[in-house]
Fold this protein.
Amino acid sequence: MGDFPKIEDSTATCPLCGGGDGVRIHPGNAAPPSPEGLRITDAHYGTVGPLFRCPACDFRFTPMKGSRLDDLYAEMEDPEYERTRPQRLLQAAKTLETLRPWKTSGRLLDIGAGSGILVEAAVQAGYQAEGIDPSAWLCQQAARRGWRVHAGVLPHPEVVGPFDVVVLMDVLEHVADPLALLDQAAALLPPGGVGLILTPDVRSLAARLLGFRWWHYRLAHVGYFSRANLALALGRAGLEPLLWRRPGWYFPADYLFKRVMGYLPPPIRQESPALLRRFTVPLNLGDSLLCLFRKPPARA
Ligand SMILES: [Zn+2]
């Protein structure tokens, strides 16, 4: 089990800017994190640990420093994630298109690579790709398909830079110390190297309309970014944003159906019709951020 801060703590230090005391905005309604609760496909929206908001940079976070979050991810298994592989592969290929004007080949590292879906898409697109992920089970799924995903976290003895490209897709919101992870990513890039980040946008319209019922408010997410404080974090890691996008997603129709049902009261929820399994639905709710960044080229 991981641990949350004591419920009576009403302030916490911001892990992003370190400035100011974060003010508690939600007491937390989740059981302490467990491998099951951290699944990528977990659908308990609105179930969070104690949440704090930094008055200086607006970062929202559950303080997890010193927790065993990495150990919990090491034990996580997520069979439903594998079932949505075709849609996630499409998503990864689309995401990599953003890189094309900057890098069309070279060494690519996917940080938080899961079962190697983006690694697969990157190899197909012509990169020499590998990944790293804390979940032993997800790494096994990758190996079974012939993709190279190292088990563990950075720094890792088998993950040796420099890489021309690093990718952090849906990972920054899961870590206790996002700044440390950005520093690690920056250290693996040569000057002029580029990277991609995808993360939910807590300042998006959907997030503001839904409040704590927003689908990205969940136990596994312990940090919530806005464009402004993500830019701030990148700057602190010596990285510079090059462009910002609002990416869309691809879902199996039945997956989406089940998630929408989660918003309805239990008595009127319906089972997903089997037919829906066959369809893929593109969806852009405009509530995610994609940032392409680079490590500035060395000055002469
Ligand atoms: Zn802050």
Observations:
- The longest helix spans residues 85-97.
